[in-house]
Amino acid sequence: MARTRVGGTGATGRTSGAGGARGAVKGARRPEVRLPALEPYEGGQLEPDGDYDGVEFRETDLAGQDGGGARFMDCALTGCALDGTRLHHARLLDSLLTGVRGVGTDLAESTLRDVELIDARLGGTQMHGSVLERVVIRGGKIDYLNLRQARLRDVVFESCVLVEPDFAGARLERVEFVDCALKAADFTASTLTDVDLRGATELGIASGLDRLSGAVISTAQLLDLAPVLAGELGIRVEG
After folding, report:
1. What is the band of 23 on the pLDDT scale with cuts at 50, 70, 90?
2. Residue 92's closest CA among 124, 123, 61, 127?
3. What is residue 230's predicted lDDT score, i.e. its pLDDT?
4. How far is CA 160 from CA 60, 105, 223, 224, in A?
5. In Å, how far are 22, 25, 138, 172, 202 from 198, measured between CA atoms?
6. In contact, 134 and 152? CB cutoff 8 Å
7. Could you tell me which residues come within 8 angstroms of residue 194 by beta carbon, excluding any fewer than 6 positions away?
């Protein structure tokens, strides 16, 4: 079962948990996924609405398979291919995904709770309408991640590269970007609460600057964003 960890206040002034200092941004609660002894996956096709409990998928080619509505509980997916894999409305609970790769993976309207996603190489992943709670995405690179209308709570993006992630219409609460490159992100119509962007090594926002209320950025990031902010406000900067 996964256990949550509540950290202390770091050098940036983040405070984890609900008992933080007045005015301080609340940090995300991280999962600590501790898996039981796992049974190896016996192969074959994923089953829609299937139930996978305590299963290890290692170097498994799941490309093009349909696991829509399936439940993965206390599972490990290591080095699996997820090209075009359909996991629409799936539930991933207390699970660890390491080194998964794929283009066009469909996780729309899925639920990820107490999950660690490590060193993923994904492109065009569909997660619109999904719910992410106590999730860490560490390392790797994800291109064109679609999180439109998703709900993220206690989520950490750490030491990863996100290229053109789409948070349009999403609700983010206690979300942290730590040593993470955020390239051309879209926050249009999103709602942010206790979102900490100060740890982002690159902060590129293509749309939705007006929705950053509820986020905290550093002074250096503010200076970097100044030309875009001026453009949004119609301010001419000369001299």
Report:
1. low
2. 127
3. 81
4. 24, 18, 23, 20
5. 18, 11, 17, 15, 10
6. no
7. 25, 26, 27, 173, 174, 175, 214
Q: Which two tokens stand for residue 44?
A: 């074959």
Query: In this structure, are strands 131-143 and 151-158 parallel, antiparallel, or unpaired?
Result: parallel
Cβ atoms of 108 and 90 within 8 Å: the answer is no
Residue appearing with tokens 């994800």? 142
Q: Which single residue is written with the structure tokens 């501790």?
A: 34
Q: Give the pLDDT confidence of 70-127 residue by residue, as tens digits.
A: 999 999 999 999 999 999 999 999 999 999 999 999 999 999 999 999 999 999 999 9
The DSSP line for 134-153 is EEEEEEEEEES-B-TT-EEE
C-alpha span between 217 and 211 (Å, rounded)? 13
